[in-house]
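BUG: 3D viewer hangs when loading the predicted structure for this chain

Environment: internal workstation, default settings.
Expected: structure renders.
Actual: progress bar stalls at 90%.

Input used:
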Amino acid sequence: MSYRVKALIVFVISLLLTGSAIGQDSLVIDFYFPSATANDAEGIFQGYADAFQEENPGITINPVFTGSYTDTRNTILTELQGGGAGPDVAVMLSIDLYSFAEEGYIVPAQNFIDGMEDGEAYVADFFPALMQNGMDEDGNVWSIPFQRSTPILYYNADLLAEAGYDSPPTNNAELVEIAQALSTEDRDGLLVPVAGGFPIWMYQSFAIAYGQNIVSEDPTEVFFNTPEAVAAVEFVRSLGTDLGVGPAGGAAWGDTPTAFLAGQAAMIYHTTGNLTRILRDADFEVGVWYLPSGPAGEDGTGYGAPTGGGNLYIFDDGSKSDAELDAIWKWVTFLSSAEIQADWGATTGYIASNATAWETEPLASLAMEYPHYLVARDQLQHVGKEFSSYATITIQGIINGTLQSILTGEAEDAQAAMDAAQAQIDGILAEYR
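Structure tokens produced before the viewer hung:
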């Protein structure tokens, strides 16, 4: 029985026994969360909240859906900057750490981990690649992985087989070859969702696969005009121009999985957080694989991807009582437990963020039946840190704007455009060095 079904039963019983779902003396935790997929995030989180409340009488979780990741960040900033209370806990992009830490809005999870009897074991169970964006340069943990992801390659296995391909592409030359073979007047061979205002995440997979991530462990360093970074964006642009396997300028985020399911695209790049939906709704055999974004290396592969998704952040301006903070940490550890991570991963396709979750039902059985769920987890060996730095929001805006101008053809000289962006970025980061 899933957490959501159990929670519904508990909720009904509590209404019958008490006439109210919220006890008068409850500590109320305001929990803000976004959604970047078509999964029923609101229903799932309400089920988790009800289950948590059964286990922890006297603590009430108030789940608040806040739209997209960007909407969530902006909503929280608006509330806090306007003198409002904001959330107690929120799922925000893992890359939001420095933006909120600089302003003093969040407190390190390390403060709570240090007080646990098994704090080291708790942290060690998370996949190291998923911890990167939740830690500062000194190794202190600020946020806890929750709905984590990588982009992966989805492909129509029936179409590949009909064209004589018995395996997915492993580097970008093979990617182009298969995409061109599967392109028709009514079908794109490959859709990469880089159109719109947020191309950086998908672009990073190509930069990493070309051999140089655009960030390092040092939040004062950004590498946006290196030969690898320029070659990566030029390749992405060529997919919709010279190579002709997709639309000029790339595809839109929300339209991409819809086109794939409708048979209008043979292959797509998209988040693993859409895996359960795509497997459920496709009327063809779906294959998934690592992103073959770069030129073939010594082993013939060109894999590369960034991590992505959201972490759990704890908000406190110093006014919360010990009882409130204890309740908040209970909620965080509940959501990051192996049991919830296993349920969340199976329900959505997001990567269950700790190793123990993969040995826990229902994910353990599901991954045996559908090895698709293992791909994003196993791709972690090829991933790089998602973009974050000091002044993340401002610098990310510069990068996104520059990428968009190159991909749409507005800026024909990619190197010149990226040189100019790098100069802006270095000027902003100079005060932090």
